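Sync notes, pocket subgroup
Present: LS, DG
LS reminded everyone that the earlier model was apo-only. Rerun requested with S-adenosylmethionine included. Inputs:
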Amino acid sequence: MEKPKRWTDYSEDEILQANIEKYDQEHIISFYQDFEEPRYSYIEYEIIFKAVLDHLAAKLDRPVSAVDMCGGAGKAAFVLKGCDPACQATLVDCSDKMLDIARDRIQRQKIEGIDVVLGDAFSFLNQEKKYDLIVFSSAVHHFKEPVKLLQTAAGCLTEQGLIVTIADPTTLTKSRRYKFFEFMLSNSDIKKMKLKRMFKPKTDEIEDEDFDLAEYQTFTGINDVKLAGELKEVGLHPVVHLRYPAGEPYMTKIMPWIGLCWAFSMIISPQAPQDNQLEIQRLKQTIKQEMPFRFKYL
Ligand SMILES: C[S@@+](CC[C@H](N)C(=O)[O-])C[C@H]1O[C@@H](n2cnc3c(N)ncnc32)[C@H](O)[C@@H]1O
């Protein structure tokens, strides 16, 4: 019998195809249609984006040009516009249905300065145009080769440009502590399903119950420390790297106290940190001062 393929056996193109199929499904689209609700507008987006936009605006004598890469329904693009209405944003995603949610909101709220582009990340980033800011919101975990992705994005940056990754899971999501916490918070149907899985005898056929080609690293998490090291090896500098407790506002107050800063964010610069140490220090201080919950810098 042929051995089942592992996630690592698939190519980046196959993973892209799985994402295209996944984000074409009605139940996923309707989940993202809710994204305007305040419960999804997590405060860390506003704080990190505002700090970065102010940092960039101080260096540029023109509006900041930004990309919300794999932006889906445009969560990051709308926050960017909220933080700096002058900012010119380009929202890119491989799912037309996800982009439709953003198009609808742009029209309803008469928002100017957001271009919507249907396309995949590597194709978009392999073009000539340069941007001051490229944001990956809950996106890096959809790629097999994050370093290659971020390196390609760095090739699209203006001289002062920065990349921001936000809301990706760390490997802490694999820990018992996290799983227990997740279990306690889940509804009774999910609890039943999880318990059933726990007691189901293991078979060789399914190597990983959570196997989902598009979403694989949502379950495994990303080793962000390893990623930071690999980025440095290719000349990119995660000048700000934080782990924080993403989620509902009241949960973010509790999670750090039980060691659950489970998401990470990075501000990545192609410039060596020693060239602008003071500005980076200021950036970190602003984020620290504004964040309403405990988090940690790495
Ligand atoms: C978890 S959703 C995040 C959406 C949005 N950034 C947010 O924070 O709400 C992942 C998004 O990435 C898109 N995506 C996945 N792989 C992609 C790729 N290779 N190129 C472009 N978009 C991609 C999906 O269509 C989906 O909209």
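DG: The beta strands are 65-69, 88-93, 114-118, 131-137, 157-169, 237-244, 263-269, 296-297.
LS: Residues 138 and 294 are 20 Å apart (CA to CA).
Action: DG to write up.
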